[in-house]
Amino acid sequence: MKLKTALAVGASLLCIGTSVQAGETFDAVKSKGFVQCGVHTGLPGFSIADSRGEWSGVDVDICRAIAAMVFGDASKYKVTSVTTQQRFTALQSGEIDVLTRNTTATVTRDTTLGLMSAGINYYDSQGIMVKKEIGVSSAKELDNATVCVQPGTTTELNLADWFRANGLTFTPVVINSPDEAMRSYEGGRCDAFTTDKSGLATVRSTLPNPDDHVILPEDFSKEPLGPMVRQGDDEWFMIVRWALNAMLEAEEYGITSENVDEMTKSDNPNIQRILGVTGEMGKGMGIDNKWAYNIIKQVGNYGESFDRNIGASSPMKLERGLNAQWKDGGLMYGWPIR
Predict the structure, then answer these.
(1) Which has the closest alpha carbon to 101: 227, 221, 194, 223?
(2) What is the C-alpha to C-alpha distance for residues 238 and 312, in angstroms, rounded to an integer?
(3) For 42-96, how does the pLDDT look when each residue is reduced to its tens digit (9 = 90+)?
């Protein structure tokens, strides 16, 4: 009976995901005049609102890039902040047009939810943070520890898998709210806190004494994070996918928000196509041929977005690491606009 119930629930979720606005998202977005993006409820560097209610972060920049691509105006977007439990339902139901929230691409999510990943804008891994005062330098020293973790995430399963694989035991302290989870960790309710390492770094930077906390070296998993869309709408899928690729290609060719106008005079045929000087790179997607120019001019290339939100010019000061361009030893590889 339990198996039948589970199958029925899975089937209903798939039905929701594939039927809501299937094949119509792009037209609906153009009709209402803005793109609605689902983002994290508040993760510095990725998606967070300031005192004026204005959002910023690398995930918000993807949303802005989509708006610039579709409307020629990066300001034509709205955000809906969604928790880990709400995010997939919000996309399945049509409450949002695209999920630009730090969400891991997995085979289960691509095959059972009626959704699919449209690209990776941050390669991450899961880690664990502890207070320096406990004198631990490796996660392998955390046998019998209590660990704060959010439910409804890949994090929960990865944590259990890693501890079991290393012959260790732990007690999970499952808390829905990331803010409450951090308060529980700070208050001593749990010995450690686990999430993606980028999340640990950003949260650590907001603590009263960041140096009192240590992110341990172990990587519990691979966490390729990026936007997701509903299945059944190839046109919208292509819009989201190529918005990200335009930012990656722009960085590779040295096109920035500052020099993009000058770059339109370049003799490089690749740059000419990217910026819509030659060719009709937007025609097949039903948008202006200067779509990538609009993204770069108004949002910037991938490197600019990374630097100001989570890189050297941000409080997090994260290294590019795996998120460097492929020519610099990273995994970021923009697909050719040609």
Answers:
(1) 227
(2) 31
(3) 988 999 999 999 999 999 999 999 999 999 999 999 999 999 889 999 999 999 9
